[in-house]
Every structure is written in structure tokens, then in C-alpha cells.
Automatic annotation (TrEMBL), chain A:
<protein>
    <submittedName>
        <fullName>Alpha-glucoside transport system permease protein</fullName>
    </submittedName>
</protein>
<dbReference type="InterPro" id="IPR035906">
    <property type="entry name" value="MetI-like_sf"/>
</dbReference>
<feature type="transmembrane region" description="Helical">
    <location>
        <begin position="57"/>
        <end position="76"/>
    </location>
</feature>
<feature type="domain" description="ABC transmembrane type-1">
    <location>
        <begin position="110"/>
        <end position="327"/>
    </location>
</feature>
<keyword id="KW-0472">Membrane</keyword>
<dbReference type="GO" id="GO:0055085">
    <property type="term" value="P:transmembrane transport"/>
</dbReference>
<feature type="transmembrane region" description="Helical">
    <location>
        <begin position="307"/>
        <end position="326"/>
    </location>
</feature>
<dbReference type="InterPro" id="IPR051393">
    <property type="entry name" value="ABC_transporter_permease"/>
</dbReference>
<keyword id="KW-0813">Transport</keyword>
Automatic annotation (TrEMBL), chain B:
<dbReference type="GO" id="GO:0005886">
    <property type="term" value="C:plasma membrane"/>
</dbReference>
<dbReference type="Pfam" id="PF00528">
    <property type="entry name" value="BPD_transp_1"/>
</dbReference>
<comment type="similarity">
    <text>Belongs to the binding-protein-dependent transport system permease family.</text>
</comment>
<feature type="transmembrane region" description="Helical">
    <location>
        <begin position="292"/>
        <end position="317"/>
    </location>
</feature>
<feature type="transmembrane region" description="Helical">
    <location>
        <begin position="181"/>
        <end position="202"/>
    </location>
</feature>
<feature type="domain" description="ABC transmembrane type-1">
    <location>
        <begin position="175"/>
        <end position="372"/>
    </location>
</feature>
<dbReference type="InterPro" id="IPR035906">
    <property type="entry name" value="MetI-like_sf"/>
</dbReference>
<feature type="transmembrane region" description="Helical">
    <location>
        <begin position="21"/>
        <end position="42"/>
    </location>
</feature>
<keyword id="KW-0813">Transport</keyword>
Length: 335, 388
């Protein structure tokens, strides 16, 4: 154990030191090869120009290498794997995609994913907006926001344990130690096994993600609401608008862009939801989703072809958002 | 906004109270789940399953079964045979409210009364657990009379669960593993991203716009796309050099790779917002890009570096997928999230272990989060297109 701590510290020193050494050393090298000081006239200008050509790539170099290895190459490679069989040796064309179209588990995952996509971003944005508006009106709003924001720091696995305890079921006649079943029996109902309840169990899993992500939506929307120019609201008040009209017709249209950002961010997250399903049900009782199905095929089915195919399908769903983001950045002159 | 609130909520005190109550309701829903596992993790193991955690501050009443002393311990007194003793192993811990001798009626007789069991046999169990079992006939048999009783147990809180979990369930080891993964995986990308971000923000070179577009695109690439090729690559490298393919170095680099697009994006947008005059006057003074970066941009970028560090720390600490794929799920290398997932499988109903482990898993992020919330929120606002 001491060895582990020691090696971790060593790595931090070597890693950070290595980075510093690289950037500093490469920079010195450029100065040495193309000196700009101590030379005069055309040579100095020439060397400065050369420095200007090389130096950006020295700065970006390490990041570029890592990005290529860890993201760009895998994206292309996954595309490749998806047209090969489970061993990655025999070309099978689109057969993996054909399998996906006819596989029942896959259908179930797609349907569930669609439900997650419909419910979670909408619920988070809606709740986040309501809480942002309400907390803005009270003196302890900051504390309230902090507390609602808190689950964002909790891991999906941790949150799953927290909620599994809430959904805990114990046989009839026993003391219900899960708060949900306790409430149900207090009202005279029968205790339920929530996470294996067909169809509805999906919603019980979604609640976990909503619980985590509402804080995110709330913080972003709250800051957008503060950015609304007061004059627009004052003008509406003078014109005799009621609070609901102000909210729907004045405030919402002005933060529309922010709502879209929040919505898409959560959408991307939902597409990749994995931990919650793995720990709560592992896809049993028809609660499978694409990311967990992919993991299943990768490690239990040992079929890289099908795993890659599912990854590509998740990627296809993200693609429109990716293109939209790039075009947006282009429009804002960020490129 | 202030205007609107003044007009809408201020109209009636009913509306104002409504707002307070509504927020209170949301706060309750968002905090009670976490509170539940915190309270449960501090409760006595036996009490967890006999009452809900929300009752843990009150005495709980539970029905238990026990045995009276065996015939060997009987004494003859006034022509009667008597067995005396206490049904509690540690008298004084709880009190008996009622008792019985049949499982169908475990609380038939109130404590302190002598129950007539027929055939000249009587039993009296007192509130403190002491009992007198007497009979006109001699007691026989190896084992004593079965007795049922309902006892009131005062609330009991303990840190025993934490001690158990940290020592015997390997959670302590996993905590260390998580730290080993998280700290380098947080620090390494910062350095690399900072230089790249500066170049993309302040240096002119061909291909810059395309690079920025690529990084914005990579922000949303699902992690799933990277898993299979990288795992195969790691296995290949491992085989080639005869080293294990699942190493800490491997996962540090993987987390660095997955965190870089967001790091560069976040840092670049911040650095691009720094005043141009600052760079230009430094350049006129003869400073090179390297000097400008080290002496001006880096110190000024501290807030955004802190934002990213918190993000990356939380993301790596809370990650399960990358750890499972690149570090493996063997006992020695399990990180906290992986351990918790494994415990959910193996110790499914043992809530004292699960809640305690869960709380150990979330405590560090919560501390980081609360103490540095300002930076976290700033990063959130600046980089809310992050997907990766």
C-alpha cells in the first residue's frame, strides 16, 4: 500500500515534471536553432518567422497526440470494428447492423433510451427552471440552491445505492425500511418491488438521473434569468401583464438559447447513461439501455463487432448535436 | 426579475408563503435521500432492519424470541421449582413491554405480571428482562422454555459500520485506489491543455480554426466509441512488451485523453477573453510566447484552471466505466465506485455495509464540491456544452 502511494506521488512528479521539461526544453530548442536575439537584419526576421511557424505546434503537440490516440483514432476504428465479426478478423459487412435491427434486446434498449430521452431532459429543465425562479424570490434561495445542486457531486453508483435504499422492498408484514414502500403502506397500499415493475421501473431509474441533473439545469438557467434586462420586465409590468404572462412571454423567449443548451447537454448525458442501469437492474426486467447493452456485448458477449455497432448507433444519435455545436461556434466567430 | 417578484409574490402573503413552502418541498426531496444513507450508516446493524431510518431517533419496539434457563439451573423453593435469570444478554440495554410463550401470541402478557401457563406453571417477565419461571413439578429437558417478548430499544448510533467496512470489506484499499487514479488524472491534463489552449487562443497559425472545430466536435463524442479500440490497443501494447495491459498509467492517460477536449475548450474560451493589450505590450517589451504564457496568461487563468480541476476530479472520482474497462475489476484494483457496484451484487441486503460504503464514496466529492463551489459553478457556466 505504501508502494502504491509512493508510485502515485512519483508519477505526479514525473508526469508534471515531464510536461514542464518538454514545454520548456522544446521552447529553448527553438530559440537555439532559430535565434532571434543577437542576430541582425534579415536573418533575425527570418528566424522570427520560422519560430512563429513552429512554436504553436510545440504548444499543441502533446494535446494533439493524445487526442488522436484516445479519441480520433478510436472513432474511426470503432466504425471499422462494426463491420467485422466478434473476433475482429472476418469482414461481415452490415450484418451487425442487421442483427441490431432484429434483436429483441436491442429493440427494448432503443425504446427505453427514447423514453429516457423524452423524460429526463424535459424533467430536469422544467424542474430546474421552476426552482431557479422560486429560489430567486426568497432570502435563503442560495442555501436552497446549494442543497439541490449537491447531488451533482455524487457518483451515479453512489446515487444508485441511495435510491435503491429508497426503493427497498421487504415482504408483506415485515417492517418496510425503504421510505417509498413505507409511505405506500402508511396510506394503506401494498408494498411494491419498484425496480422490477415492468415498464414503470424505467421511470424509477430515470428519477435518479433527474435527481442528479436538476441542479445543473437550475444553476445555468438561474444565471440566464439574472441576465434578462430588467427594462423588458418593467415594461411588461407597466403594460399590465400578470406574473404568468411575464414568465411565458417575456422571460422564457429571452432564455430560449440557454434552455436549448441545457436540454442538449442532458440529452448527451442520457444517451450514455450506463452506471445507473448497471447497478440498479443490470438491464433486467426490460430496463436495458444502449450503453449498458454495449458493455454487455463487449465483456459478457465478447463480441467487439456488436459492441462497436451499438457504440456507432449512440454516436449517430449525438452527431446532430455535434454538428449544431460546431456551426454555432462558427456563427459566434469562435473558430 | 426583482420587479416581477415584487409584484407577483408581494401581492399576497399567501403567495409568498407558497414560494417558501414550494422551495422547502424541493429542498426536502433533494436532501432526504442522502440524509437517509448518512443516518443509516451510523445506526446499529440490528436496528437498521427493524425500523425505518426516519424512526432512528426514537425508541423502536421489536418482537424477539429467546430461551429461559434450562432445567439444570432450577432451585427448589417452598415446594416449588424455580428458574431465575434475565432474558437479555446485557441487561439494561432495552426494556420488555410484553411477553408470551407462543409465537402466535408473542405479546400475550404485559411485563411484570405473572402468567399462568397451566399445570401449575407460571412465568413472570419484568420490564428489565429478569424472569421467574416456577412450577409445582420438577423441570425436565435439556433446553429451557421458549419465550417471546417485545422490547423497546433506545436509539443507538455507532461508528462501528465505518470501522468494519474500512477494514474487512476492502473499502479502505479502494479509497486509496481511487485517490491513486484521480490525482494524476486531474493534474496531467491541466498542463497539457493549458499550453494547447493558449496556442489556440493567442497564436496565429494555419489550421487553427479547423482544430478548434475538431475539439468542439470531440466534446460530445460518447465514451463508448473509444472503449473497444483502446482496450484492444492496450492489450496489444501489453502483449508486445510483456507487461500487464491494465495499469494505473493506462487509466491516467485514458482519463487525460477523455478530459482534454473539455479542458482545452474551457481554458481557451477563458484565455481568449483576456485583454489583448496585455499580450501586445508584453510582446513589444520583447517577451516570447513562452514567457507571455508562463508569466501573464497562466497566473491570470487560475480561476478557470481551478474550475477544470474540480470538474476533472469529480468526473474521475465518480467514474465507473473507464475504471472497469481500463483498470479492471479484480480485488486489488477496484476503485470506490467499482467496489460499491461489487458490494451491491455480493452484499445486496446488508444495508449497513452498502450505506456506509456509499457514504465513504461520496464524502470526498461533497467536501471538494462545497468548499470550491464558486469555481465549480463558474466552470459550469463557461462550459455547459460539455458532453464527454
Amino acid at each position: 500500500m505504501a508502494a502504491q502511494i509512493f508510485s502515485a506521488i512519483l508519477v505526479i512528479i514525473v508526469g508534471v515534471g515531464g510536461c514542464v521539461l518538454y514545454f520548456w526544453g522544446a521552447n529553448k530548442l527553438v530559440d537555439l536553432i532559430f535565434p532571434s536575439r543577437g542576430v541582425t537584419g534579415a536573418a533575425a526576421v527570418d528566424n522570427l518567422r520560422r519560430q512563429g511557424l513552429i512554436r504553436p505546434w510545440l504548444f499543441i503537440g502533446p494535446a494533439l497526440v493524445i487526442l488522436v490516440i484516445y479519441l480520433i483514432y478510436p472513432v474511426i476504428s470503432t466504425l471499422w470494428y462494426s463491420v467485422y465479426d466478434k473476433t475482429g478478423e472476418n469482414f461481415v459487412g452490415l450484418r451487425n447492423y442487421g442483427w441490431a435491427l432484429s434483436d429483441e434486446q436491442f429493440h427494448n434498449s432503443i425504446v427505453n433510451n427514447l423514453m429516457w430521452l423524452l423524460v429526463v431532459p424535459a424533467a430536469c429543465t422544467f424542474l430546474g427552471l421552476i426552482i431557479a425562479v422560486l429560489t430567486d424570490k426568497i432570502w435563503w434561495g442560495t442555501i436552497a440552491k446549494s442543497l439541490i445542486f449537491l447531488p451533482l457531486a455524487i457518483s451515479f453508483v453512489g446515487a444508485s445505492v441511495i435510491w435503491k435504499f429508497i426503493y427497498e422492498y421487504r415482504g408483506e408484514g415485515q417492517v418496510q425500511i425503504g421510505i417509498l414502500n413505507s409511505i405506500v403502506t402508511w396510506f394503506g397500499g401494498d408494498p411494491q418491488v419498484w425496480i422490477s415493475m415492468p415498464f414503470w421501473n424505467n421511470f424509477f431509474l430515470m428519477i435518479i438521473l433527474i435527481w442528479i441533473q436538476t441542479g445543473f439545469a437550475m444553476v445555468i438557467l438561474s444565471s440566464a434569468l439574472r441576465g434578462i434586462p430588467e427594462e423588458t420586465i418593467e415594461a411588461a409590468v407597466i403594460d399590465g401583464a400578470n406574473p404568468f404572462q411575464i414568465f411565458w412571454k417575456i422571460m422564457i423567449p429571452q432564455i430560449w438559447g440557454t434552455i436549448a443548451v441545457v436540454w442538449t447537454t442532458i440529452t448527451i448525458l442520457v444517451l450514455k447513461v450506463f452506471d445507473i442501469v448497471l447497478t440498479m437492474t443490470n438491464g433486467q426486467w426490460n430496463s436495458q439501455v444502449l450503453a449498458n447493452l454495449m458493455f454487455d456485448w463487449m465483456f459478457r458477449g465478447l463480441d467487439n463487432g456488436r459492441g462497436a455497432t451499438i457504440a456507432i448507433i449512440i454516436m449517430l444519435a449525438v452527431l446532430p448535436i455535434m454538428i449544431w455545436n460546431i456551426r454555432q461556434a462558427n456563427k459566434e466567430g469562435k473558430l | 426579475m426583482a420587479q416581477a417578484s415584487g409584484n407577483s409574490a408581494g401581492k399576497s402573503s399567501f403567495g409568498r408563503w407558497g414560494v417558501h413552502l414550494a422551495v422547502l418541498f424541493f429542498v426536502a426531496i433533494w436532501t432526504i435521500p442522502t440524509l437517509g444513507i448518512l443516518v443509516t450508516s451510523l445506526r446499529d446493524k440490528d436496528q437498521i432492519i427493524t425500523s425505518g431510518w426516519w424512526n432512528s431517533f426514537f425508541s423502536s419496539s421489536q418482537t424477539q424470541a429467546g430461551r429461559l434457563g434450562a432445567a439444570a439451573g432450577q432451585q427448589e423453593r417452598d415446594g416449588k421449582f424455580v428458574i431465575e435469570g434475565n432474558i437479555f444478554e446485557t441487561p439494561g440495554a432495552s426494556t420488555v413491554s410484553a411477553f408470551g410463550t407462543r409465537s402466535a401470541a408473542p405479546t400475550q402478557y404485559p411485563a411484570g405480571t405473572a402468567a399462568d401457563l397451566g399445570d401449575g406453571e407460571t412465568l413472570q417477565v419484568n420490564a428489565d428482562g429478569s424472569y421467574i419461571h416456577s412450577s409445582t413439578k420438577k423441570f425436565e429437558g435439556e433446553r429451557g422454555q421458549r419465550v417471546y417478548y417485545s422490547s423497546t430499544v433506545p436509539p443507538k448510533f455507532t461508528t462501528e459500520n465505518y470501522y468494519n467496512v474500512l477494514t474487512s470489506e476492502n473499502v479502505g484499499r479502494s479509497f486509496l485506489n481511487s485517490l491513486t487514479v484521480t490525482i494524476p488524472a486531474t493534474i496531467i491534463p491541466i498542463m497539457i491543455a493549458a499550453f494547447a489552449a493558449y496556442a489556440l487562443a493567442w497564436m496565429r497559425f494555419p489550421g487553427r480554426a479547423i482544430l478548434i472545430a475538431v475539439i468542439i466536435g470531440l466534446l460530445v463524442v460518447p465514451l463508448q466509441m473509444a472503449l473497444i479500440p483502446l482496450l484492444e490497443m492496450y492489450n496489444g501494447v501489453g502483449n508486445l512488451f510483456g507487461v500487464p495491459s491494465k495499469t494505473y498509467l493506462g487509466i491516467w492517460l485514458a482519463h487525460t485523453g477523455f478530459g482534454l477536449p473539455f479542458a482545452i475548450y474551457l481554458l481557451r474560451s477563458y484565455m481568449a477573453g483576456l485583454p489583448r493589450e496585455l499580450m501586445e505590450s508584453a510582446r513589444i517589451d520583447g517577451a516570447s510566447d513562452f514567457e507571455i504564457f508562463m508569466k501573464i496568461v497562466l497566473p491570470l487563468s487560475f480561476p478557470v484552471l481551478a474550475s477544470f480541476a474540480i470538474f476533472q476530479f469529480l468526473w474521475v472520482w465518480n467514474d465507473l466505466l473507464v475504471a472497469m474497462v481500463f483498470l479492471g475489476t479484480d480485488q486489488e484494483h477496484l476503485v470506490l465506485t467499482g467496489r460499491l457496484n461489487a458490494l451491491l451484487g455480493s452484499r445486496g441486503g446488508d444495508w449497513e455495509i452498502l450505506t456506509t460504503s456509499a457514504f465513504i464514496t461520496i464524502i470526498l466529492p461533497l467536501i471538494v464540491f462545497f468548499s470550491l463551489q464558486r469555481y465549480f459553478v463558474r466552470g459550469l457556466l463557461a462550459g455547459s456544452v460539455k458532453g464527454g
